[in-house]
Amino acid sequence: MNNQDTIIALSTPQGSGAIGVIRLSGPDAIALTNSVFAGKDLEQQASHTLHFGLIKDGEQLIDEVVAGLFVAPKSYTKENVVEISCHGSNYIIQQIINLLVAKGARAAKPGEFTLRAFLNGAFDLSQAEAVADLIASNSKASHDVAMQQMRGGFATELKGLREQLIHFASMIELELDFAEEDVEFANREQLKNLVNRISVVLRRLIGSFEMGNVIKNGVPIVIAGKPNVGKSTLLNALLNEERAIVSDIAGTTRDTIEDELTIGGVVFRFIDTAGIRDTADIIEALGVERTLEKMKLAKLIIYMADASQTIAEIEEQVKGLKQLQIPYLIIVNKADLIDADRRKALESMDAVLISARDKVGIEELKVTLLEQVNLHHINTDETLVTNVRHVEALKQTENALQRVMDNVDNPVTSDFLAMDIKQALHYLGEITGTVTTDDLLENIFTKFCIGK
Ligand code: GDP
Fold first, then answer.
1. Which residues bind GTP (predicted)?
2. Ligand 1 proximity of 231 Cβ (cutoff 6 Å)
3. Element (H or E) spanning 292, and its range?
4. Could you tell me the distance, in angstroms and rounded to a whole number, from the CA of residue 366 to the centre of ligand 1?
5. What is the DSSP string of 300-359?
6. What predicted TM-score, i.e. pTM, was given to this entire model?
7. What secondary structure letter does DSSP report for 411?
8. 136, 158, 229, 317: least buried by Cβ within 10 Å?
9. pLDDT tens track for 251-286
10. How confident is the model over 330-363, as pLDDT tens digits?
């Protein structure tokens, strides 16, 4: 990894826009820009200032631009950073980047600015990951969670606990050094106490992942039901546009239909159910492994029936759903085709009566969907884990700490104890990107000066 060079990339999306922002980071960012900039001497300007000028390739004028200066270490990457706002033409952008590359800048690799920010200690790994989540956030809830994580999130909470654990690790290492003398530096009761406290936090964080994941990736929903009951029509009504193919011929909905809908700040994601839709009978479908796997991805299954069916028929169909142990919602469609008596009969069952074609009952259905997934109480002030890598590391930490608890009262297993604590530290450290072994060694030496 070469951090001594100066990298350059377009930081706004590809394609024409009113402006494009080209970013440079590295020791020569300001000097390089200055070498093609006509207006004033950028190297003599203060940090956090904007400067109008011309970008010129020799005598040829490329564009009128505004250069924003961030002098190290007061920048995103903690290096010298220049942001050149130019007119958003692909041609201009390419010309400016080519020119600066010719002067000595290097085209940045994906994520390299944020990588540098992390390597230069601007934030920890979990915060760097949150930057990506923030950019990808598409609802209020996912934005709130990413923002919270970027500003420190649960990593801060873990850091304190981790430091206390490092202390115990050093004590136990010491015991191992003095193994002959049978001394106990690490108080076992205090250790148990700390492990318990950490475990409580770990369990809460691991438990929050289900919600965190749903917020980040959307609530996965499957719409199931026999062909021609109106599943595609409902999806269209929900999405309020004609995206899926609607047809009278049973089983024609073949294309992958995966779409997103935001209700009350929560993203609902309709997962690809072409296989399920095509299957003649949901009960039969339950026998099909592939279909089952897909159904299992859902947090909620919408089972659609036709109002011309009897209650007994509908109940017979949903019997198989119960085995899946995934919450489901029965929707009876084509309410426009039935008379008042039949409507009354259907209303007696636990189902939502709609007419997808006439868009009747859709708003009520949206409210029911929100209630069903139980997300209306989202409290994004609470720390939520949204990242699979983090939740895996948390689980590994929990396992290692469980082993610590299993061994803590056994005097002959100090080595195991030390190993398991180290593992727990390693996994906790993985979340924030800390190098565990260095930490541990440093901690021992600075506190005890054993080598003296
Ligand atoms: P799918 O196979 O379950 O996806 O069903 P489609 O959405 O393709 O709909 C099948 C047929 O039922 C189409 O002709 C729709 O126009 C019709 N349909 C859908 N919803 C309604 C409704 O609420 N009332 C009536 N009368 N027809 C509907």
1. 228-233, 247-253, 272-275, 333-336, 355-357
2. yes
3. helix 289-296
4. 19
5. EEEEEEETTS-HHHHHHHHHHHHHHTS-EEEEEE-GGGS-HHHHHHHHTSS-EE-BTTTT
6. 0.66
7. G
8. 136
9. 444 344 457 788 877 788 887 555 444 444 554 444
10. 999 999 998 888 888 888 888 899 999 999 999 8
Are 231 and 394 spatial neighbours (Cβ–Cβ below 8 Å)? Answer: no
Q: How many angstroms separate the CA atoms of 358 and 351, rounded? A: 18
Among residues 193, 206, 224, 256, the alpha carbon closest in space to that of 390 is found at: 206
DSSP for 55-113, please give it: EEETTEEEEEEEEEEE-TTSSSSSS-EEEEEEEE-HHHHHHHHHHHHHHT-EEPPTTHH
Residue 231 assigned to a binding site: yes
CA 97 – CA 101 distance, rounded (Å): 6
Domains of the chain: 7-122 (3.30.1360.120), 127-208+385-433 (1.20.120.430), 215-373 (3.40.50.300)
Rounded-to-integer distance, Cα 150 and Cα 122, Å: 11
How far, in Å, are 125, 171, 381, 425 from residue 35 at the CA level?
35, 57, 47, 48
pLDDT(25) > 80: yes
| Residue pointed to by tokens 């209650």 | 311
357 touches ligand 1 (CB under 6 Å): yes
ipTM for the whole complex: 0.98
Distance CA 243, CA 129 (A): 33
User: Cα-flanking dihedrals φ and ψ of residue 124, to 5°?
Assistant: -85, 180
Residues 6+ apart with CB under 8 A from 249: none
Q: In the predicted model, what is the mean pLDDT of residues 184-199?
A: 88
Choosing from 234, 236, 246 the residue with most ligand 1 atoms within 8 A of its CB, the one to mutate for a pocket test is: 246
Residue among 134, 79, 67, 130 nearest 108 (CA): 79
